[in-house]
Amino acid sequence: MGSVPDKRMSAEDVAARVRSGMTVGIGGWGSRRKPMTLVRELLRTDVDDLTVVAYGGPDVGLLCAAGKVRKVVSGFVSLDSIPLEPHYRAARQGGTIEAAEWDEGMLLLGLQAAAWRVPFLPTRAGLGSDVLALHPDLRTVRSPYVDGDGAGGDQPEGQLGEELVAVPALDLDVALLHVHRADRAGNSALLGPDPYMDDLFAAAATETYVSCEQVVATEELARLAPLPALSLSRLQVTGVVEAPGGAAFTECPPDYPRDEALQRRYVEAASEPDGWRTFLDEWAAGTSGAPETGGNHG
Amino acid sequence: MAEASNPTRAEICVVAVAEVFRGDGERLCNPIGTIPMIGGRLARETFEPELVMTDGFATFTSSPLPPGVDPYRSEDGRIVVEAEVESFNPYRQMFSVLWGGKRHVMMGATQVDRFGNQNIACIGDWHRPKAQLLGFRGAPGNTINHTTSYWVPRHGPKVFVERVDVVCGVGYDRAAQLGPTAARFHEIRRVVSDLGVFDFAAPDHRMRLRSVHPGVEVAEVLEATGFDLVVDDELTETRLPTAQELELIRTVLDPAGLREQEVPDR
User: Fold this and answer.
1) In this structure, which topology does domain B9-262 adopt according to CATH?
2) What share of chain A is helix, strand, coil (3-state, %, to 5)?
3) Contacts of A108 in chain B (CB under 8 A)
4) Is the pLDDT of residue A60 over 80?
5) Is there a contact between B134 and A131 if contact means CB atoms under 8 Å apart?
6) For residue B4, what pLDDT is reported?
């Protein structure tokens, strides 16, 4: 009987795989199921000049505050219950990062294109808006098919198909994700209400590191949830980190909700000089009221 | 709480929002914001019963959830949704819904101009904004793919502006520049504010004052708007809620009265 490979490692090991100048994709959505233990470990390294691709939350905010980031490619950066992310906001207003702010769906297509190894995917999203004007590296493409004449039709001379936005592939060097359960090889069970784009981040990346609430035996996975919850397989996973509470203070239901008090403290500290560091120190020391599951990790 | 014969401004806004979705039939009604959510659900519970509603997260639900109510609960390591779930609609699937045109969204607008261009991204030059806001979110893809309306809880000249700082949601002038093929799914149906209801039914698709809320003077609206509104002889007063609508709003759709925080009565 074949056995699955053992890809378990520590959060420090993952952080050591990330090198300056890399493009790093981060799973989750806003302040939901973010791989915060992995991000906090990354903050301890001397890595910088990163391009971060995310539906951003405090992951993006902390990396910006810590000076790790050259460029953020995002559909938004938000804390959900608090709409504006303070560190990303400061970085934008201070001009300390380059930003690519795309339509949320364009980000999905960029990841999908990378996952499918095609240079771009077309969409109508972005046409007419300032997304195109403000991001001159975004190009359009003319359909080779005449309007209303689908695949297979010959294109009459002189007639043109419609113009669409060509969303470039978002090739990631590394993807960081946090999931509920995984086996030691990276087969994952996503037990929350939304898988977000996590499996696309994984498929778009050369290397994907998954932290999880708990490592379980492979045979446990299909007992935990209906099959659609098992959509991230070990084919897409390079390393597995067991990190209970690894998404805190962002939400990770059903395991735990967002720690709203801690998130409020995060925002409050952001207005102080070096407040992100103060916040992390307080959090590590357990003086910010972190949930039990999140107090001793990262 | 006001008497049925004396609805609050917030309740008038709720009904004005509901009216925005009239005639939509079986498509996703996706109002964002407190009064928009109450208004959308009012439409579904009364004159537009086939509307599909989202819980704001990952499901379509038939339950008339009040705003601010999170129907998700964790039980024995599983997610339980305390609502009548019709379907699973995670974010990824949402893009098939909206790019396929089966949605009418009501978004907020930090700025909106006479052609319905909307800004939620930032104030100032986008390259180094004075105030970073939400980014583009889904506004570009929404407006070019399906019907969009806007909600402005506090009408003023800094919101209704001559020119938006960043075009997130595409307005009628931009859509016209794209031509009829690219813009064939574009529709900005209405803007609802705490002062009135606006549409783009003028011949050149400039914003038109469609109705003023009871108790609001036309001059007040014009003064609070940073560009010239079209005012024609079709201008009316926004209709009052019926007794049944008020009952639903007050006892089922928003028993906590969150609407009055978004638009205080005056």
Assistant:
1) Glutaconate Coenzyme A-transferase (3.40.1080)
2) 30, 25, 45
3) 92, 95
4) yes
5) no
6) 56
**Å between B91 CA and nearest CA of chain A:** 6
Arithmetic mean of pLDDT over chain B? 96
Q: Determine contact, residues A187/A221, Cβ cutoff 8 Å.
A: yes
Taking residues A222-251, what's their average pLDDT? 97
In this predicted structure, the answer to whether residue A294 has a pLDDT above a threshold of 50 is no
Preceding peptide of A254 cis, ω within 30°: yes
Q: Do B144 and A127 touch (CB under 8 A)?
A: yes
Mean of the pLDDT values across residues A246-268? 97
ipTM of the complex model: 0.95
pLDDT-derived band of residue A296, with 50, 70 and 90 as boundaries?
very low
- Mean pLDDT of the B117-126 span: 98
A91 within 8 A of A62, measured Cβ to Cβ? no
Radius of gyration over every alpha carbon of chain B, rounded to an integer in angstroms: 18
Pick from B92, B144, B181: CB nearest A128 = B144
CA distances from B23 to A245, B29, B64, B142, B208 (A): 47, 11, 19, 19, 20
pLDDT tens track for B49-85 = 999 999 989 999 999 889 888 899 999 888 999 999 9
CB within 8 Å of A151: residues ≥ 6 apart:
A145
Q: What are phi and psi of A219, to 5 degrees?
A: -65, -15
Q: What is the Cα Rg of chain A in Å?
A: 20
Pairing of strands A139-142, A163-168: antiparallel
pLDDT grade for A147, boundaries at 50, 70 and 90: low
Q: Using CB atoms within 10 A of its CB, is residue A140 exposed (0-12), middle (13-18) or buried (19+)?
A: middle
Mean pLDDT of chain A: 93
Closest-CA distance of chain A to residue B130, Å:
6
Q: Could you give the angle at the alpha carbon of A74 between the alpha carbons of A68 and A79, nearest 5°? A: 85
Pairwise CA distance, residues B51 & A12, whole Å: 50
Among chain B residues, CA nearest to A94:
B128
Chains A and B: how many Cβ contacts under 8 Å? 148
* Eight-state DSSP code of residue A234: G
Which pair of tokens denotes residue B213? 């809320």
Give the domain ranges of chain B: 9-262
State the best of B89, B91, B112, B177 to mutate against chain A, taking most chain A CBs within 10 Å.
B91
Q: What is the pLDDT of residues B192-243, one digit of tens each?
A: 999 999 999 999 999 999 999 999 999 999 999 999 999 999 999 999 999 9
Residues of chain A in contact with residue B90, where contact means CB-CB under 8 angstroms, are 193-196
